[in-house]
Input
Amino acid sequence: MKIQDSVFVVTGASSGIGAATARAAAAAGARVVLAARREDRLRELAAELEGAIAVRCDVTDQAQVAALVQATLDAFGRIDVLVNNAGQGLQAEIERLSLDDFRGVLELNLVAPLAVMQAVLPTMRRQGAGSIVNVSSGTTFADVPGTGGYVASKIALERLSAIARNELEGTGITVSTVIPFATSTEFMSSIRAGRAEAEAMTAGATFDAPEQVADAILELVESGGSRLDLVPAAYGGSR
Output
């Protein structure tokens, strides 16, 4: 899909990978809809990007997701690209994993992306074209203690994406997955539980810039490829 003049909806756009993706898409000529809960940050970013609009949206709230889609259609009349980026980390060993925390992460990392996909697909079907990119995590490449709850949510998202891609074959709509490696974002400060443990686990690690992930997302939109990982070969990835 051509990015020039396309309409991008980016969730989790107030910082990190989402904000970087919005900037990259706008620089490539897209019209961008910024969605997140932190409206003040969205408005600051929208002011930077010509033609961008900010829509406060908690993606776990179905009514707010519907309002996001309607606001996009009201502003631009179409939806060409959805980047499902909103998400949250969780660090806890299986024996100590709070079921409430696990449910919360599943709701945000798995159920919400499905809800947003379902919300944009009718429009994309009418258009006969669309691109959906779901953001997973390189933690799915290993069985690291303490990551079980988070990895479960992201592995499930990867399979959901792959099956949706097959179901939509022939419609002009592609579903892709990007798998970042450790990325310099606010992930640690917003982790649902286990921040100290997660910081200890990643101490000394080299983090990618969010712009690297944004470039990969735009590459998937343009190519229609099924998945792209930024995980080093030493960890089982393709980089």
